Amino acid sequence: MNAGEESEYFLKSYMLRQRDLGKKDTIFGRINELSDDGNLESLIWDAMAEDDLANFRIKNLITILRISKSGVKSKADISINGVRYSIKEIGASPPAIINHTPRPGFENVCKKLNVSIQELDDIVCEYWDLRTKVTIKEDTCVSDTNCPFTQHKKYLRPIIEYFVFTGTGTGDSKNLADKILEIDYKNLPGEMKIVRKEQYFNDVWPSLVFSLRSKGMPPNYPNTNNSNSISRWTRFFDGKNKGSLHVRVKTN
Questions:
Q1: What gap in Å lies between CA 47 and CA 57, rounded to an integer?
Q2: CA distance 142 to 211
Q3: Domain boundaries, the chain
Q4: How far is CA 147 from the centre of its chain?
Q5: In whole angstroms, what is the distance from residue 218 CA to residue 109 CA?
Q6: What is the pLDDT of residues 123-182, one digit of tens each?
Q7: Beta pairing, strands 78-80 & 34-35
Q8: What is the pTM of this model?
Q9: How far apart are CA 201 and CA 18, in angstroms?
Q10: Sheet order of strands, 192-196 included
């Protein structure tokens, strides 16, 4: 279990106690609604979990309270008082913003947003040109001098926001996120911060790292569906076919 997963399980347990004991000492005040894409709404706080909560024994909390983790296709991890939040643990490694996605996934998203994919095609083409010349490495950060993505903030914004709050390259999530909830789960209730959708993009933009990788590529490429689309971003590099765009937040 990684730190991000621990954080989600702990927050759900913590907020369950807040709701059922009527506590008001978080930024949310009294909890009138608490749910996720699983069974959180119907759970009841059990006093037997108090010591495990105080000592961060996550596995025990899961067993006693029957807390579940949100599904991989959910963008929201928890709903509190009617607002759906994606949990970001500030004590963990920075999260991936877009997991390894070949070009057809971005085609789907661009169509949904009514945005031309041509500009992204041009950026990826420039990326490979700079990689071939060894001007940039596989990972290129927006803050780097030669990063080909840096000058395209306005264009990339709705695409990145879609992946953070709405869905993936295969379609919309059934459980969208309205806002980001940044927490340090070992320092609650103090370390909790709500970040609005428009604010989150501006916060992470300077630290975004883009790369084209082999992970996420169809295993039988080029003998696969959408091969023509996939090939437009794919280059055989370092002995591998690399054509999946990955975006993450830079590690401090």
A1: 14
A2: 11
A3: 3-89, 96-175+204-249
A4: 22
A5: 19
A6: 999 999 999 999 999 999 999 989 999 999 999 999 999 999 999 999 999 899 999 999
A7: antiparallel
A8: 0.90
A9: 30
A10: 34-35, 78-80, 83-89, 179-183, 192-196
